[in-house]
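pls design
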């Protein structure tokens, strides 16, 4: 049976490669528009606490759950005393105890998306709100993003395609009602940053590729990325969609 993906191996570099507190604050602001204004909040996949810290600055500190102890160790200073080790499929949270729950870039990492949504329905109180991000669908634009998609496709890594229509359908099947939607805006990635991600094998889908396949397939892509013009100019691509659902 597949297992949910833990981020132990990139805990030390996660903040530097995922936008740091600036990104955390931006995402928190977008989530706050959709989450309830009162009652306990839960972040599933809290990681190093970037978004949780942004929520705390808005006066809404969440409880945070994550599989990775090394990631949680880095979150302790940001939201002290509000963290627990746990899997999205078996949350260490009482039934009906939270007013709002959110997952940011998590659903493509869990072992079972429908089971995760059912577990979130369990911990939410009636009328509670679930907010989750989903990947943009459609073709991947631009040279950098096309190269990153090519290496994922060719090497057969864990596919990260959990798009908005799929999440909406599975949420409905889990008993949720849609109540809102937002875009997080375009995502920028430069050739140099993309090359650094490949060189460090930093993205979660890359870890599922066996070492021999990675050693054979990654260097040509890295060479193409390093050879692109305007190495520090970000290429935009559609950003994630934020979906909100209500538990009846």
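designed seq:
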């Amino acid at each position: 049976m597949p297992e949910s993906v833990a981020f132990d191996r990139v805990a030390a570099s996660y903040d530097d490669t995922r936008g740091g507190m600036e990104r955390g604050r931006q995402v928190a602001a977008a989530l706050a528009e959709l989450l309830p204004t009162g009652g306990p909040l839960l972040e599933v996949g809290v990681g190093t606490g970037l978004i949780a810290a942004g929520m705390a600055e808005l006066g809404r500190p969440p409880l945070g759950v994550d599989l990775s102890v090394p990631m949680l160790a880095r979150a302790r200073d940001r939201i002290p005393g509000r963290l627990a080790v746990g899997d999205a499929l078996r949350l260490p949270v009482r039934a009906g105890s939270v007013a709002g729950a959110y997952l940011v870039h998590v659903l493509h990492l869990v072992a079972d998306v429908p089971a995760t949504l059912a577990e979130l329905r369990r911990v939410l109180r009636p009328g509670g709100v679930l907010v989750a991000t989903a990947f943009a669908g459609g073709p991947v634009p631009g040279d950098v993003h096309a190269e990153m998609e090519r290496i994922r496709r060719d090497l057969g890594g864990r596919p990260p395609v959990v798009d908005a229509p799929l999440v909406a359908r599975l949420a409905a099947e889990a008993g949720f009602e849609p109540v809102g939607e937002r875009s997080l805006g375009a995502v920028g990635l430069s050739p140099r940053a993309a090359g650094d991600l490949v060189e460090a094998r930093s993205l979660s889908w890359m870890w599922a590729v066996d070492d021999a396949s990675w050693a054979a397939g990654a260097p040509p892509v890295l060479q193409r990325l390093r050879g692109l013009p305007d190495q520090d100019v970000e290429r935009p691509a559609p950003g994630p969609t934020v979906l909100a659902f209500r538990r009846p």
